[in-house]
Amino acid sequence: MKLPEDALAPLTGVFAEPWHAQTLAAAHGLIRAGHITPTEWAKALGAALAEAEARGAPDTEETYYLSALSALEGLAPLNETELAARKADWEAAYRRTPHGKPVRL
Amino acid sequence: MASYDPKTIGDIHRHLHTHMPPDPALRIKALESLAVEKGLVARETLDTWVEMYSEKIGPKRGAEVIARAWVEPDYYDRLMEDAGQAIKDFGYQGHATEHLKAVQNTPDTHNLVVCTLCSCYPFAVLGMSPLWYRSAAYRSRAVKDPRGVLAEFGVTLDAGVKVRVWDSTAELRYLVVPERPAGTEGWSREALAAIITRDSMIGTERDLKLEAT
What we know:
The structure holds 2 protein chains of 2 kinds.
Chain A: H1 18-32, H2 38-54, H3 61-75, H4 80-96
Chain B: H1 6-18, H2 23-37, H3 43-56, H4 60-71, H5 73-81, H6 83-86, E1 100-104, E2 109-114, H7 123-126, H8 131-134, H9 136-144, H10 146-152, E3 162-167, E4 173-177, H11 189-195, H12 198-202
Parallel strand pairs in B: 1-4, 2-3
Helix pairs in contact in B: 4-5, 4-11, 9-10
């Protein structure tokens, strides 16, 4: 277990990676809008964390957020095919966009 | 010996210049862009959440609530009766704190909060949870061996002190009200709030220090 962190440290570095924050923000947004219930979210996140632990994933921040992302993908009212297609679209957009320009689909 | 391969160099060059995000970043980008397009969630809601939890919402909120409860007996009663309602005085209600229960430490009782299932936490009054709160180690051991966990946080309890462990759920979260330290008589709410730490409101700290951290 980790030692206690500085309890009232300034709120910098709350999220190590932007996608960590985006994942929780999307979960929060879908819960607030009524597309996911808080209980469904807790159960799916708990199951994803248990699954990660069972397969021996390290007990880290990365594992936590990857579990949260998987749980969210499973609960969001979006299907796997459209998620995969949209991800491929973003990859293509990043590849074709010159450095320094905004990446758009 | 290294050799020059124009194709490899070209690939590396292109890779550097497009800054391809890591796989999970692309996955959440796909999910959020679809969700926004389909009207499932507003872009502003997502951006506001990230901004608020990255920069604005933190444990100072919970500290303000507890400091007020220490100096105003009526507010203390309301907090213990229904914390979810009491924090509305500060405008701190929000996601995940509609049902909030305050639990008071006493000389012979110590309260410790965990979420054994996932990471339920009173975000609106404590901000983002610390990493250890979400770790498998804490979630699995806080119930089985609370004294051992507390010892790792530097909290040693006398044998006569009972530990109550509260397991948070999606419907009900907990806020520990630490004991007001001796020597703080007459202090302002601001001065009191400054000594109340995040960990004391989760229960992994017990005796507050008179100097603000």
